[in-house]
């Protein structure tokens, strides 16, 4: 009998040790279920999806090279993480499809955080504030939103401007027509030609374009929506998102993020760690 009791005790002890081993391995099992950063590290490349016509966040300069605030920040982040940055221009209207099919590792180009987008995208913490504003020609008589009743409004398809307009139902109902464009720059060119009466777009982009291009546009004081920019990742890529987020916070702490912001905007307008 003692022999059987001893055997039973040994078996029980073995079972406890096995279960303890399983419990101890749970953190690594959790990490194994989300190897998003490890995959990027292994291939040595981070693929950033962006709209190449979205100054000053990401756009092509006179030499045809992709530059911009988000581009400079991403270059610094990937440099600190020891991986190469690949800039991948995408159709902004299909950005979430590009992300979820694995063509890119993140959407990072003045990407507005919205509740609808949160259903399909894992966002970093916000790094910049923005507003959706109306751009008209300087010589026009438009001074507020009410003046645009019955007029043609242009915006970028699939953009946060489209989301803002959808949320402003009374304003939208009074418009004569809403025209969608592939990008904001095309919309602004059509505004210059008189094809449309106004453009709804990001204030940061609008003010940069007006200043740099010295165009005869003006921004109406009345905005349609306030928002924040974030970096979008696949829903399960929490490990990668946290790695990027921690690097951004380190850049904010040591002043590098402020330095890049000052280069593009004349001052630090970022919100990381604030």
Low-confidence spans: pLDDT under 50, at least 5 residues? 1-10, 15-31
Assess the beta-strand content as a share of residues: 15-25%
Number of strands: 13
Q: Give the averaged pLDDT, no decimals.
A: 89
CATH class of the largest domain: Alpha Beta
When the domains are counted, the total is: 2
Distance between the termini: 70 Å
Which class do the helix and strand fractions yield? alpha/beta
- What pattern of helices and strands is seen along the backbone? HHHEEEEHEHEHEEEHHEHEHEEHH
CATH T-level topology of the largest domain: D-Maltodextrin-Binding Protein, domain 2
Q: Give the CATH H-level superfamily of the largest domain.
A: Periplasmic binding protein-like II
Percent in helix: 40-55%
Overall radius of gyration? 25 Å
Q: Mind describing the biggest β-sheet?
A: 10 strands, mixed
SS summary, helix count: 12
CATH architecture of the largest domain: 3-Layer(aba) Sandwich
Report what the structure shows.
This protein is of the alpha/beta class and 274 residues long. It folds into 2 domains: 36-129 and 228-265, D-Maltodextrin-Binding Protein, domain 2; 131-227, Periplasmic binding protein-like II (D-Maltodextrin-Binding Protein, domain 2, 3-Layer(aba) Sandwich). The chain has 12 helices and 13 strands. The strands form 2 sheets. Strands 1, 5, 6, 7, 8, 9, 10, 11, 12 and 13 form a 10-stranded mixed sheet that branches. A 3-stranded antiparallel sheet has the order 2-3-4. A hairpin with a 3-residue loop joins strand 2 (53-54) and strand 3 (58-60). Helix 4 crosses helix 11 (238-254). The longest helix is centred in the first third of the chain and has 23 residues, at 2-24. Residues 1-10 and 15-31 have low confidence and may be disordered.
């Amino acid at each position: 009998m003692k022999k059987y009791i001893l055997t039973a005790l040994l078996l029980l002890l073995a079972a406890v040790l096995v279960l303890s081993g399983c419990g101890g391995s749970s953190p690594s099992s959790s990490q194994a279920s989300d190897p998003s950063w490890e995959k990027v590290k292994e291939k040595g490349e981070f693929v950033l999806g962006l709209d190449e016509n979205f100054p000053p966040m990401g756009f092509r300069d006179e030499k045809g090279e992709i530059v911009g605030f988000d581009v400079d920040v991403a270059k610094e982040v990937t440099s600190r993480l020891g991986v190469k940055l690949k800039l991948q221009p995408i159709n902004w209207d299909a950005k979430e499809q590009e992300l979820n099919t694995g063509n890119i590792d993140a959407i990072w180009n003045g990407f507005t955080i919205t509740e609808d987008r949160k259903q399909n995208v894992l966002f970093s913490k916000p790094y910049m504030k923005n507003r959706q504003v109306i751009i008209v020609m300087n010589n026009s008589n438009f001074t507020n939103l009410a003046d645009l009743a019955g007029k043609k409004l242009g915006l970028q398809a699939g953009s946060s401007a489209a989301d803002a307009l959808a949320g402003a139902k009374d304003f939208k109902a009074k418009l004569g027509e809403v025209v969608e464009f592939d990008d904001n720059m095309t919309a602004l060119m059509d505004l210059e030609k008189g094809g449309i009466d106004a453009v709804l777009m990001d204030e940061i982009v609008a003010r940069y374009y007006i200043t740099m291009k010295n165009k005869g546009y003006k921004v109406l004081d009345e905005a349609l929506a306030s928002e924040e920019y974030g970096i979008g990742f696949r829903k399960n890529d929490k490990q990668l998102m946290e790695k990027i987020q921690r690097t951004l916070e380190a850049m904010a702490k040591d002043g590098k993020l402020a330095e890049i912001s000052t280069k593009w905007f004349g001052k630090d307008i970022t919100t990381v760690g604030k």
